[in-house]
Amino acid sequence: MAEVAVVGAGPNGLAAAVALARAGKRVRLLERAPTAGGACRSAELTLPGFVHDVCAAIHPLAAASPFLGELPLVAHGLQWVNPPAPLAHPFDDGSAAVLERSIRDTGETLGEDARRYAATVGPLAEAFAELAADLLSGVFRMPRHPLAFGRFGSLAWKPARRVAEARFEGKRARALFAGVAAHGLAPLEEPFTSAFGLLLCAAGHAVGWPFPRGGSQRLVDALASVLESLGGEIVPGHEVASVDELPWAQAVLFDVTPAQLLRLAGHRFSSRYRAMLARYRYGPGVFKVDFALSGPIPWRAAQCARAGTVHLGGTLEEVAASGRAVAQGRPPERPFVVLAQHSLFDATRAPRGRHTAWAYCHVPHGSPVEMTDRIEAQIERFAPGFRELVLGRRSAGPARLEAYNPNLVGGDISGGSLLGLQLFLRPGLRPRPHATPDPRIFLCSSSTPPGPGVHGMCGYLAARTVLGTALRARRASAVPRGLRRLGLGARGTGV
Ligand SMILES: Cc1cc2nc3c(=O)[nH]c(=O)nc-3n(C[C@H](O)[C@H](O)[C@H](O)COP(=O)(O)OP(=O)(O)OC[C@H]3O[C@@H](n4cnc5c(N)ncnc54)[C@H](O)[C@@H]3O)c2cc1C
Description:
Layout: E1 4-7, H1 11-22, E2 27-30, E3 42-43, E4 52-53, H2 60-64, H3 66-70, E5 80-81, E6 85-90, E7 96-99, H4 103-108, H5 114-126, H6 128-135, H7 146-156, H8 160-167, H9 171-181, H10 193-206, E8 211-212, H11 217-229, E9 233-235, E10 251-254, H12 258-265, H13 271-279, E11 285-293, E12 307-312, H14 316-327, E13 337-340, E14 355-363, H15 372-382, E15 390-396, H16 398-404, E16 441-443, H17 457-478, H18 481-485
Parallel strand pairs: 1-2, 1-10, 2-9, 6-12, 10-16
Antiparallel strand pairs: 3-4, 5-8, 6-7, 11-14, 11-15, 12-13, 13-14
The structure holds flavin-adenine dinucleotide.
């Protein structure tokens, strides 16, 4: 009989299950979809032989994850592909700023800002392993590497637009930084948006922006294989409707967002915790298009063909305007588009000579507006002739994404808004954010620290909370009964 149930086999559910199985627990993972992986799966979405990443596609955070780094994922079939350049950001004049693996080479594409870029990002890239360990290991702990953390923090709290305009003089570096910061899905005028720009630029130099050969699915398949090697069990096609269905589990970890947790287990919580979950805010959505192509994308700026990811948004002003429109509830006419071109570097993604492209833009929460044409127009703008290569396409707006995976509420890919304090306090202000008032129930999704991305750290930290709760329970039961009656000794799971 399993001791622990994990509901949802996304990257965080899998990571939680692996961490608990590694600690010797008997774990059963229940997943509503026919396959494990959550928002990190791959499928032939367009034509036979074309492998598309249904959701997550580019994985600097997985490569930086302290927990995933401890696991034998390569021995379980994972192969990383690191394109020569992580990112290109083309301009209308046919040139491009390029985030290269080396700071120096990057600077050469940034003209007058080469030295300023090196001074801003270089020290963070050098201390990246320490920085990532601190940033991805939760908020309520002292940084283990205060120097790197302090350097990061001195800029990270500022709006990305302010940092870009203060640190850089030319349009190229400003636009490159703005595009990377836009991954925070918040207007660039908001505090803390610099954090995304700084972290992801530094990651590009330190670990690259890699992806798994064969599709993102291979990363979660490797996690699932590690879990099974540790005796864990995965039950696909099992949708859990209520925590009451799982009386056998001494601890239940939910890889879901707060609105779902309320439906599944709300009756087990205090009214105060229920109100906190109900107050949780969701962020903008995305509109995504996958393409099957008859050839490589004909970029006007040839350097774009060296990059796994290409940001299509022109200048900082244009990227910023796109983010503001989304925040004001208007789908942008010229959206900022994130595009990945895996098949240029991974021949397993498409039939010989053919190619894939993965592209999305941000849209207002739940927006029903069709964005395929606007996304294609942005690609065509920087790669004239693109449309003639399209053999097949498949679009998915917020409703389709949420139907695919109920964690993508209103198309929100971050498990909740990243604006304001909710960037840190997920799902709210709690000393142990992965625990709930019910000592048997835990939250392990990207709606908990350290937040979205395929890094598994939310699951890992939730598993540590479960194990810590169990330890407290054992200590409490060691307290003599008389003292326990006086309220000394904590409640906990019996895991
Ligand atoms: C379009 C898109 C693009 C993205 N791009 C990237 C990227 O390039 N790089 C990156 O790092 N991140 C990216 N992300 C974000 C990343 O995918 C998520 O942050 C990550 O998958 C969150 O993992 P999770 O385990 O918390 O949740 P999820 O991956 O959403 O998994 C939750 C799982 O729980 C299951 N579930 C829900 N309710 C139940 C229930 N009642 N019973 C049983 N099972 C249930 C769901 O079916 C799902 O499998 C992207 C996301 C999307 C949608």
